[in-house]
Amino acid sequence: MKTLYVLLSLATISTSVALAAPEMPAGDTPDPYRDLVIKTEGGLEVTTTDGEFSLELGGRILADAAIYDEDKNALGNGSELRDLRLDLEGRLYADFIYEFSVDFADGEADVKDAWFAYDAVYPWKFSVGHFKEPFSLEELTSKRYLTFMERALPNELAPGRSIGIGAHWSGQRVTFAAGFFGDDYNDDADDEGDEGWGISSRLTFAPWAEERSALHLGVAAGFRRLDDEEEVRFDTRPESHITDIRYLDTGKLEQSRSIALLGLEGAWVTGPFSLQGEWMQAKVERDTGTEPTFDGWYLQASWFLTGESRRYKQDAAKFGRIRPLSEHGALEAAARFSSLDLNDGEIEGGSSDNLTLGLNWYINRQIRLMANAIFVDNDRFADADGDVEAEDEPTIIQLRAQVDF
Amino acid sequence: MKTLYVLLSLATISTSVALAAPEMPAGDTPDPYRDLVIKTEGGLEVTTTDGEFSLELGGRILADAAIYDEDKNALGNGSELRDLRLDLEGRLYADFIYEFSVDFADGEADVKDAWFAYDAVYPWKFSVGHFKEPFSLEELTSKRYLTFMERALPNELAPGRSIGIGAHWSGQRVTFAAGFFGDDYNDDADDEGDEGWGISSRLTFAPWAEERSALHLGVAAGFRRLDDEEEVRFDTRPESHITDIRYLDTGKLEQSRSIALLGLEGAWVTGPFSLQGEWMQAKVERDTGTEPTFDGWYLQASWFLTGESRRYKQDAAKFGRIRPLSEHGALEAAARFSSLDLNDGEIEGGSSDNLTLGLNWYINRQIRLMANAIFVDNDRFADADGDVEAEDEPTIIQLRAQVDF
Amino acid sequence: MKTLYVLLSLATISTSVALAAPEMPAGDTPDPYRDLVIKTEGGLEVTTTDGEFSLELGGRILADAAIYDEDKNALGNGSELRDLRLDLEGRLYADFIYEFSVDFADGEADVKDAWFAYDAVYPWKFSVGHFKEPFSLEELTSKRYLTFMERALPNELAPGRSIGIGAHWSGQRVTFAAGFFGDDYNDDADDEGDEGWGISSRLTFAPWAEERSALHLGVAAGFRRLDDEEEVRFDTRPESHITDIRYLDTGKLEQSRSIALLGLEGAWVTGPFSLQGEWMQAKVERDTGTEPTFDGWYLQASWFLTGESRRYKQDAAKFGRIRPLSEHGALEAAARFSSLDLNDGEIEGGSSDNLTLGLNWYINRQIRLMANAIFVDNDRFADADGDVEAEDEPTIIQLRAQVDF
Description:
3 copies of one chain form a homotrimer. Chain A is mostly beta strands. Chain A is 4% helix and 53% strand. The longest helix of chain A is centred in the N-terminal third of the chain and has 10 residues, at 2-11.
């Protein structure tokens, strides 16, 4: 009976000739009798049993609240939807995969992943579309799986998503990714100047990467030629998104031709304990002959009180979903120190240190409650380019309810 | 054979080990052999047979046209998409439900429901995210199931959706809901002032609630502390959405600290006939010491010529989908009188009465055509805060084609 | 065994009584035991075996890059997401179909198809909502299936999508479509003036329409009463979307009451070779007594080096998806000459000729790479209404990566 079970489950959900016929004549005809595997864990996954075609429909809702223990400046207690994302992923003709992801949290349609890739030449993957440039472990890890509510301060230097083409190579211990990119989907140079472009590359090495034990080392480099406006601006909030105050702000650096990026990454997982840290630097080449250089770093430690491990995905060289061991979920305590310095010579963008204490309750694989306490320490230039008082030292309490499906 | 049928239908659509394995190790492992029930009635429903996981994908399209028999002011005949909504709902790990709903009708991404809830402690449900504050029978009933094309004038006083947390308790005859909320997802106080917040609560009692016979009584109260700008504005169109003229408009009431809301509801269904009415009041507390108070009410009657009943859902204390008895659909005639008075003391926001006659043809459960005739009677202060002529008395004819799936 | 296969595949994916019961009492009850056919080719199709209900979920990603060999004006090299579209289609109660389609490529929610239709009276179809007015073969053909990356210059004169009602009749060789429309979903007259409205109609005749051989002839006419602002403006880019320069631009033609449209279409497919051409004209009726008249035309030829044929869909009188014959995909070479003249009398909107050479690689049915070279020849009035230099003759190279699922 068990055998029959399995046979049937593989055999029966098939596409009928009647329906499929008008769409499938000669050529590289998909077999109309293709069997399917269908699964829901809140979202939906449909896969042909031969794995050649698939569709996955899902999304996420992140609802946040923040209370600011203000020091010199008003920051504005409040609530927001941090993410409200719809995701479609799939596979076509065995050799192609795609992802389609849009975020609606702020009432607009903020395009996230929108790309497809050819992955038939193992272990290569070639991508085209709008996706994350290969730079920074924390940037590449989905916000769903991050230990803290917001990425660390130096993330302002990471390039994030752009439109481009990329290649990814993934070996037993080593991964390498590189790409050539235009600007982000919604950037457009004024007055019909040319768009900027950039190249990014990342090399990682994992001496070991087991279920509950891993060591990750990485280095990344990038170069970006700015668009014809030749302006660049680095500015960032403290590690809290509800306020709009961006203490650190270089203002527009005009006559800027290009940016060179450098990043170093490391992560170590041993049982319930993990460490992770990054350092990154952006050097701006200006027509004025100066080269303002900004850098930042963070170091974080996390400990699962309930015994789980952070899950390192070696092939993608980033972290993945936490799976609670108990039916009461998983509990994680964590701390992070991060620092970003946007001062260099005459550029007084400010410098800030953020210390964050975090507590996460993974109720199940898809629902998580988070609490962060952030202690901000700004220097005398951290004045939002003159808009607020400097040397502000607020404390922030923020909460998140997260579901992804 | 029938038995085999059923056995197979329960057994065969299962998730394969091969596929599920990499996603499902130890812990509160969802059974990879979980059987599914899949259904389409235009949209898609996928549910595990144990009911622990599910996904529902659907949406709605509402296309409207309006012709204005103008009196003193131009209102602008025209057409619009009133709703164009995508909906995802689901259940996770038996105990959690979520809803994800965005409206694209006006070319932006207007976030509607975006929440998840824990509903494992019967008869409680605890919600977090962006959802409707518990206030007003008509506001809580989906626009798909409303008798008229637009909600009644006093709906301007109802709080609608905000980001917050809520609890819902549902007994045999009584329901109680309450919540604590920040502002709506896209509201943000200027200049980093604190967001507003509010509490809402609703208590309903249904002495009887059967298939074709129900009596509903309810009372709701709310309090809202305004954000740091301390401004509030009540303004509303006549019961027609295509025009942009908001005859009733208090203008910005500055130095306003808070609003107290009170609402009374009643509905009676007996066979094809039903009555429904509400009264609600908003009292504004101002720093000036005054307390401008606005109120409105409506009363509506509906009669299904084809014998159907409005469907009262006792557990949610609101109305649901109409199911035509005949294959030619259901025909409903209805009338509503509504009134809103935004005048109080020195505040001259205007007062208006709208009489609406409506005819609905429910072609089937998911498609409906609607026609409304609205007779508007504005007082001498109903001048859109000075922008249009007062004492306007236009007549409006409007039509809707609605599908939801 | 084969028989068992088929029996089971038809029988087993059924809806359970348990689940369906609370949603399905008397009336036009959908059978809860309805069998389903489920299919994925990257997207998802779910259909009841009786064909009465269905849902199709899909989308598309189009990523473009353009390099401008500039002549007199800067055009701005760059990249963009050209389309990022989510699509839901379905059937309800056998007799109704709907389509729900939104594009997110530019960071907003640009509504595309949003309509439903009654198609139970063969061969009629009656539609309501937001859909394409019946005018122009190229406009009505999905961008996914067009031979070139952008529609030809005269497409500026075609009405595109509006909110309205329409009827479509489709016989053996002849199709006829007509509709009455308001404005596009996001148009709204200023100052509460009335919206514009229009009628469009299209008649096509296919003396033969076989798998690899077809002849299509068509004529279309339209009339549009402009809204109360009485302004119309025709302006268009060269056949490239990344630049924002619209060389051809009549400026706002004020005191314009209405537009009369006329279009002629032809297409001929014989094996791998095809020709297609259109001519269209817009005549503006102005209160000034003048009748500025603009027209344009294009002619294109396409040749499948790998032997496929363009697929003419006789019932819809437009072109459909290409199905590669080989597993290495299909290769198509094509050329188009197009011309649009927006000069008439005192209106000097400019005139332009674009010659395009195109090469398409259909890797499979759903993935396509495109390359276009466009040679632009503008006249002395093609100055973007005074914003750029006239008589510009740039050459454009543009590339597209396209997936639809």
